[in-house]
Amino acid sequence: MKKTIDHIGVAVRNLEDTIQFYKNVLGAKLIDQYRSDAKGVESEIAIMEVDGARTELLAPTNNTTSPIARFIKQKGKGVHHIAYRVDDLDAALEELEQQGIRTLKDSLRINKHGRRLIYLNPADTEGTIIEYCDYPVKKDL
């Protein structure tokens, strides 16, 4: 199955400062900024675009339960995950299962932009947090 990079997720401590860096230094455009209080997300998210390539800036909104807060505490700020777009997430999940790759089933969700996503188990990816996603209902950003 074909996979392409959809975006890179970056854990940050100060979202506004990081947005300004991306705009002023990298020439990025702010595509969207929103807050997700969903269990297992609990972050404020800014989608930045540089020449068609997207980066999601992720700042924790709950320092006790947010996975981004936990990530920053353990590893510091920086690249959190790499998201790969697939044509059909259900077919990709079947392929992963056949390969013996586990997913974090409780991470399966649809975000506000219609992106359906799930994270692969980092124990099966040499420690890298990898997201698989598709866009079953195309929404423009």
Automatic annotation (TrEMBL):
Residues 4-135 form the VOC domain. Its EC number is 5.1.99.1. GO terms for molecular function: methylmalonyl-CoA epimerase activity. It is an enzyme of class 5 (isomerase). Keywords: Isomerase, Metal-binding. It comes from the Bacteria. It holds the Pfam family Glyoxalase_4. Belongs to the methylmalonyl-CoA epimerase family. This is Methylmalonyl-CoA epimerase. It comes from Bacillus seohaeanensis.
